[in-house]
Amino acid sequence: MQRLRDRVIVVTGAAQGQGAAQTAALAREGAQVIATDVRPPRSEPTEGTVVARSLDVTDEEGWSALAAWLRDAHGRVDGLVNNAGITWRARVGQVAAADFLRVQAVNTLGPLLGIQRLAPLLPRGGSIVNVGSSAALTGHYPVAYTASKWALRGVAKAACTELGPRGIRVNTVHPGFVETPMTASAAPAFRAANLAATPLGRTGAPEEIAAVVVFLLCEEASYITGAEIPVDGGLTAHGGVKPISDALRD
Ligand code: NAI
């Protein structure tokens, strides 16, 4: 049985990586996916109903145009996945103000604009999922990225409170290290340190994040809102004490 049959769901940053995996997973569940991105898709989805549209999540007019199109084409939207994101690997001492603001614009303002512009089209039972990061739960070194994802938690909490009375749910997933074009550019030491800190001892696949996103969009999650779900192989579960456990293991 398809769990999202005929549901209209918008995904941002859908051209590659996790957004592409979410798009494919949602289409398999019968959703009509509006796959948006600033760049064209790397590969065309092979299953289900997927419509690709151009959208820069920082562009207010772009969101308004998408909302107007959704109103005309479908009369509603049932779900939004705020997945688009960028990283910027500069440390506290080095980050330039312009880069800090650019990352906040995509990772924090973008999801807020999406919620603001699409919420009027969401019916009771609608669901919004934000893609945060394990960086939103820790003091991860790329400060612009970390700050943007902590701020996104605030956006999600406020939106959950605001939209709850209308029967709209707002949740956040926090991926750990996931194999996508974003992490392909990470230094080998970054990958190795992540693996050492991850109890499951491996990186994640985009499909493993997508499965949780799909669940949060489904009726099965009907009483879950304001929640934050790490999907990180246990990276953030041990609060930094894994090296102690590892050191004392027989
Ligand atoms: P990715 O870099 O492979 O894909 C990100 C997508 O977002 C790209 O298609 C890009 O074109 C799009 N994008 C960038 N700026 C945009 C804008 N202004 N408007 C619309 N689309 C834009 O990255 P990945 O890994 O798939 O990331 C997806 C989400 O997961 C992001 O929010 C990222 O911060 C988050 N995340 C990723 C982790 C990882 O290990 N890969 C870990 C934790 C969180």
UniProtKB/TrEMBL annotation:
SUPFAM superfamilies noted in UniProt: NAD(P)-binding Rossmann-fold domains
Domain of life of the source: Bacteria
Keyword Mitochondrion found: no
Keyword entries, A-Z: Oxidoreductase
Name of a matching Pfam family: adh_short_C2
Lyase found in the keyword field: no
The family this protein is said to belong to: Belongs to the short-chain dehydrogenases/reductases (SDR) family.
Name this protein carries in UniProt: SDR family NAD(P)-dependent oxidoreductase
Organism: Salinactinospora qingdaonensis
